[in-house]
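hey so u asked for the seq, here:
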Amino acid sequence: MANPGHGDHSKQGGDHSKQGGDHSKQGGDQSKQGGDQSKQGGDQSKQAAIKQELQPHPIMEQLSGVQYCVNSPPPWKDAVLLGFQHYILTLGTTVLIPTMTVSQMGGDNAEKAKVIQTLLFLSGFNTLMQTLFGTRLPCVVSGSYAYLIPVFSTIRAKRYDTFHEPHEVTIYDISRVFYGFCLPLMFIWFDAGTFKRFAQTMRGIQGALVVASALQTTLGFLGVWRNILKYLSPLSVVPLVTFTGLGLYYLAFPMLGKCVEIGLAELVLMVVFSQARFRSLQQIPKLVIEPTALSVNSIGGTIILQWSVTSKRPVYDRYAVLFSVLVTWVCAGVLTWSGAYVKSRKTLDTCRTDSSGLIHGAPWIYVPYPFQWGTPTFDVTEVFMMVVASFISTIESTGSFLATARYGSATPVPPSVLSRGIGWLGFGTFIGSMCGMVTGFAASVENSGALALTKVGSRRVIQISAAFMIFFSVFGKFGAIFASIPLPITAAMYCVFFGCVSSVGLGHLQFCNLNSFRTKFILGLSFSIGLSLPQFFREKWVVSGHGPVLTHSRWVCFKFSLQEILYFCDSFLVGKITKIVMLAKMASPYFRQSEAIDNMVCVVMMSHSSVALIIAMVLDCTLDLVEKENGKDWWMKFEDYSKDVRSNEFYKLPWNLNKFFPAL
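ran it, structure tokens below
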């Protein structure tokens, strides 16, 4: 007989199993909904990641990635090595400019060595002054190429034709030497006996540099340059800094090509040491075991030396210049000593390490002093040309200062600080003109590019480099050893460093609106004319020896005897104007043909950075401006020194001198 209770229980169990199936079905639906939600969440996170990835890079007022900025000095060991590296780089310009000029002036190896030592000594001195009282940036001050056209024009001047021989010539007709050029008076101090053509040419260059330095000092210290720079914007800074580096291209690969086997090897090694970074090695930390403490065990009196393990990474990129120059310099020396360049006259003066003659000609100890070549002489045409060159050097130095500030991780340089730096450059040129130099001073472009390679923009490194310059200029024999580095090796380094300066100029485009047709037009025209116009003038100069603006102009001159000159000076001092007029009427006027106007135009038009800046600045200030197109809004707070609190951190004068010489 069936049990009715048992049927009820089985029925209830079936209901429970049915309810369990319904619950499991609901759980499956919930898990399916959870999977859909997780899928939607994954899609949203993926879209957010894509959106974040497509965002443009942020604008940076200070460059990141710099290991040591302006105020953060590295350890002394690294600072000394980096300072010596900057000294090696400075030797290129210091040796190249006297090599091109001294021989044409009639000088020999001994005189060339003295000129190089003078230029190196004053470069170190002015670098110290610039880092202490100038812009306070880690910027090396060296010789400027902007003065070469006036210098070569002075060397070829007809007033030195009297000195037929390179060294000694006796002057018989003194009246042929003294020519008065209205006002101011041109005169030559003379000694009894013989003259040296080199010394007389050096005196003429000194006199022109004295007047040119006065203009540069006036522009800087009186704030004239500060008022001009207030019209700058990031849009006009781009061609200025870019062509400050690219404008010296003729010193890079064209000079490297004179000795390809040495120069190309240096270029390849520079790239390998600075950029390859030996990635397979740097991925693995380098373990260094160093002793940290020394203790004595009381049991048995044994000495226990404690050790610590630290991890360091190779720094081949920081010392790429030292490593690459050492390798190629040794190779060039081996090829020279083995006789590989004996039969090749073409490579005699470029590849060899003993062609400069500096080791034999340099004195053991030499300290430059004022008027070592004699008192300066003045000529109106030479002075005008040198004044224009000083203005071009001011423009190019401004571009170097801006690049140095960027690679030193400093804020944009206020116009008052730039003007202060230009004033100290003029002061340095004045000191150099007194001691006898063949060129003026400017901020070094190649050393600014070296900051990008080392990622060390410390001021202390540059000051140590200045100490090396002064030391090796005084002890000439030791400095001549490093000066024997072939110029193609230096040119290979220029290929890298000039490009680094140009790239930091292009970096200022981040402040500009690149989608604006106005911006594109200004950049395009300034780049196009900045490249082509100087090249046109340079080709004309190389082929014909003068620029395309040769006007055959003549200067009205008067010939005076020595007694008439003394009478003129006495009349001028006592204010006897009538006697001066009578003297001018009595003198015999003549016309002296001059290429001064052509040379002055060539000095301006052969400077890539000056041409590009003038075009960009004029267009930026005259064309209709839409708000925030040229990036001027980003720089408004840096135009006034006191508007940004970080200005004191980078540009404040030492020893509380800002109280007496405040920056505006």
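The beta strands are 141-143, 168-170, 179-180, 194-196, 286-296, 303-312, 441-443, 554-559, 588-593. The longest strand covers residues 286-296.
lmk if thats what u needed
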